[in-house]
Amino acid sequence: xxxxxxxxxxxxxxxxxxxxxxxxxxxxxxxxxxxxxxxxxxxxxxxxxxxxxxxxxxxxxxxxxxxxxxxxxxxxxxxxxxxxxxxxxxxxxxxxxxxxxxxxxxxxxxxxxxxxxxxxxxxxxxxxxxxxxxxxxxxxxxxxxxxxxxxxxxxxxxxxxxxxxxxxxxxxxxxxxxxxxxxxxxxxxxxxxxxxxxxxxxxxxxxxxxxxxxxxxxxxxxxxxxxxxxxxxxxxxxxxxxxxxxxxxxxxxxxxxxxxxxxxxxxxxxxxxxxxxxxxxxxxxxxxxxxxxxxxxxxxxxxxxxxxxxxxxxxxxxxxxxxxxxxxxxxxxxxxxxxxxxxxxxxxxxxx
Amino acid sequence: xxxxxxxxxxxxxxxxxxxxxxxxxxxxxxxxxxxxxxxxxxxxxxxxxxxxxxxxxxxxxxxxxxxxxxxxxxxxxxxxxxxxxxxxxxxxxxxxxxxxxxxxxxxxxxxxxxxxxxxxxxxxxxxxxxxxxxxxxxxxxxxxxxxxxxxxxxxxxxxxxxxxxxxxxxxxxxxxxxxxxxxxxxxxxxxxxxxxxxxxxxxxxxxxxxxxxxxxxxxxxxxxxxxxxxxxxxxxxxxxxxxxxxxxxxxxxxxxxxxxxxxxxxxxxxxxxxxxxxxxxxxxxxxxxxxxxxxxxxxxxxxxxxxxxxxxxxxxxxxxxxxxxxxxxxxxxxxxxxxxxxxxxxxxxxxxxxxxxxxxxxxxxxxxxxxxxxxxxxxxxxxxxxxxxxxxxxxxxxxxxxxxxxxxxxxxxxxxxxxxxxxxxxxxxxxxxxxxxxxxxxxxxxxxxxxxxxxxxxxxxxxxxxxxxxxxxxxxxxxxxxxxxxxxxxxxxxxxxxxxxxxxxxxxxxxxxxxxxxxxxxxxxxxxxxxxxxxxxxxxxxxxxxxxxxxxxxxxxxxxxxxxxxxxxxxxxxxxxxxxxxxxxxxxxxxxxxxxxxxxxxxxxxxxxxxxxxxxxxxxxxxxxxxxxxxxxxxxxxxxxxxxxxxxxxxxxxxxxxxxxxxxxxxxxxxxxxxxxxxxxxxxxxxxxxxxxxxxxxxxxxxxxxxxxxxxxxxxxxxxxxxxxxxxxxxxxxxxxxxxxxxxxxxxxxxxxxxxxxxxxxxxxxxxxxxxxxxxxxxxxxxxxxxxxxxxxxxxxxxxxxxx
Lengths: 352, 804
Ligand SMILES: [Zn+2]
Fold this sequence. Notes:
The complex is a heterodimer of chains A (352) and B (804). Chain A has helices spanning 2-22, 26-37, 42-48, 55-89, 91-94, 113-126, 141-144, 184-192, 233-248, 303-308, 325-333, 346-349; strands at residues 131-132, 138-140, 176-178, 197-206, 218-229, 254-258, 264-273, 292-301, 316-323. Helix content of chain A is 40%, strand content 18%. Chain A folds into two domains: 2-94; 113-136 and 147-163 and 180-349, Bira Bifunctional Protein, Domain 2 (BirA Bifunctional Protein, domain 2). With 352 residues, chain A is an alpha+beta fold. In chain A, the strands form two sheets. Chain A has a seven-stranded mixed sheet, sandwiched between helices. Chain A has a two-stranded antiparallel sheet with strand order 2-3. Chain B has six domains: 2-39 and 159-185, Phenylalanyl-tRNA Synthetase, Chain B, domain 1 (2-Layer Sandwich); 44-155, CATH 2.40.50.140; 203-400, Phenylalanyl-trna Synthetase, Chain B, domain 3 (Phenylalanyl-tRNA Synthetase, Chain B, domain 3), CATH 3.50.40; 409-477, Phenylalanyl-tRNA Synthetase, Chain B, domain 1 (2-Layer Sandwich); 495-699, BirA Bifunctional Protein, domain 2 (2-Layer Sandwich), CATH 3.30.930.10; 717-802, Ferrodoxin-fold anticodon-binding domain (Alpha-Beta Plaits), CATH 3.30.70.380. In chain B, 26% of the residues lie in helices and 29% in strands. The chains are: A alpha+beta (352), B alpha+beta (804). Residues 274, 276-277, 281, 284, 286-287 of chain A line the site of zinc ion.
């Protein structure tokens, strides 16, 4: 009896292991386990029959059965591992996706390129201790012109073609306008505080001007002003040089030439060396072959302007500058037409 | 301003190449826009017409024998009516590359048989040489033109096109530019010598000149030339005018223009025989007076206009334009020549009034110096006699009230120069700069120099002007470059700027694209969005860029909808825009209120077309989700109230919410009103718009939602409850009741249902409710008890029952 029981354990083990080697998926393995090792499985049934044997045989066959059980269990685990390794090895084939299919769309928003460039510009000046202030877009002639040394009838008024508000005061004058620059804040701020003054004024400005690829009637400006004891033209150069490096890169060179704005004296405009051709291409579209690109106007604050706000012109000096973010954005991004900015075409806006 | 180098060279030697010269001028503040080269006439030279004979086979053509200066003779066919023997002309040999007037292109000249006769070259017109438009006749050169000299050498030129800033009036003249070049290159300037004999009768016996309003005419000078003959100007004079961009007219008028270009002083010539009583009075116009100006337009004058009048009527608008009644004509023999200094402000106003911005007015309005008037007068008098003959009357009129006033002097100190420029310049160097500009200097002290400014400069009035002269001549590169070393002022925080920047970031982060649009609208635009324009209407622009858009916008909505509508034409969407800007609200006799707003619109499909996404139209709840998330970035957790009864007339009355925070309205969100949608003919519906009130946001008490809550260690328990409530109970109300219990950590609405299995007028709301305590693990019993309590409250407050 014990002999035959031992034999049948041996047979069962052999059969089970042979079968096991053929199996190739977890479901079959589970069936196999139930078949041989389950509560009603083959081995269990054999071992259950042990109760009819005497103690000695029971111990013998029992030990045999337990060995067989662990052999099968080990075999099962090994085979299980083999199968899962084989499957993992096949994962690229089994779970392949077409990675060229488009991704799930995520819609993001962006800031308008003008906003982005304005921020870059103001950040550069804030880092040099300038504060940001803003002012009204609808202004009085008084601040837009008169306080800036551009009285009624001054020929320099032709430099700013003006949009006027349809409002006539008691004297029959039309004193309200859409500001032509953000410079009026020079006078407004200085009227309200004593030096030191160090500020930039970003904002919208308006000109009565036919539009074309380089002219808009509605655009932005950043005006800057620094007034204190001991501020010089040399400081103007240094400040604007540093600004140019911040915006256009540390290798940029700057150049100043004489220019005229009624509210500064001396007046200059500043160019940077051409970042596109570096002065090597006589047909360069960016610098028109000159090697230099004008980017802003500046100068030492005119004593008339300082006197008009009640500053002591013997004591205080300062510089002012003005620049156009659209122009800077056009240079930086190679935009060929300023009219793109405010037509709000998504095909344009999405590029920034 | 066109400056021919050939003319410039009469006054100053130039040895720089034109582009280098242009660069030096530009750096010094006289910007050269363009440099145009005239020339490139290979195989062309000065020739002499020896003989003109009729063409044997064509009446309109002539056969000319031309001497090209190399002891040969050429036979040339010529059709020009003005060709004559003895003329010096521009001769083009075979091989010259010239403009062909028949083909309209530059072509190489070939020997050609014209009506049976071989032409060995060509006598050129202006058009063929590219010198001008003239093609009727050939160019006739002066009698002393050297035969055989290449045309490039004789006629070639370079024209500088100057873009002059309003302060540099001097550079509106050739001599002014010559002085500038003299200063920049260290060359001496030659001013034309003027001398003539006055052989006529005394001027005051022949004409009577007086100034009645010296406040508008500081100086008036006049000369008289009698017995002259009007005709075309000599070629050299015509050429110079043409190259400087002026059209030659007749000898006398051409001289006035020539001297204006040369010296800057506008002059005017009156036909004295047409001046009543030979009397000139400079006065303000009388009420009701009129004048037909030289352009043939009758003008009504007002009493602020300065006129030049005869004994009865105006004969010219002083410093702007002459009158037709005293115009120089072919019959003129007696010319009264005027050279005056008119008041710049009044002159500009007159030019503005009549929209007559002439070469003269553009000079006067910038303030010419009175010293210039007699200098230019004498120069022009001499030239008129030279080109038109006649006798010059003895003496001139020179009416100048403040003749004794000294020439302007300005003093500059080295201390001030250093204070402005941040560098030291030696006095000797400063003087050298001034002398190069022909400013006279006088040392006042070791530190100061007093400068007398020459008559051609009217822009040097204060010390800083002199400092600019110094720095622009020595060059800006010589000024050191330093960083600001004064103390940094306290920064003034501007909360609005900061808030605006954060809102922009937040809205972009939830998927909205920022736009910036023109801030103008039409009244119809406002009507389209049901904006009430009655009462104190929006701010109107007097001279708008387009008459359709002539009001400053009081709302961003029309602009946003235009942006949406425009993009629908090019795009499939989704469309999600916002704009942050100011709206303008008029106030009586004050600047308008400029209110900061941010508004947006969403429309189209929720997502770009995709194989993955179950798409649907963007609607109110997309908008609400975006705003909720954006406002959360600002630390705000607003509540949303139904805004029936018109929060905004542009919005759908049943689909609009007021956005509330700490008891104040911070904005509105709603679907566009169906009628507005219809008017804009929008492709995708609905369009959902929002507006946030920046002032209200700014006024909120310090950000509430940013207080850190400690992370609890205890687990949360969760229950799902489906409630049946009357349909008109807002879900927000139910959620709020659940939310406010202290053991309720979070409530999520996961289903809204109406229809089958529910009685009419009821809806079902299903929530996940999460219970949690910061200090212990809640027992099941505690959770159930809490929930029961909540259900009782819901039953009492909103009639909610548990759904079976
Ligand atoms: Zn370049």
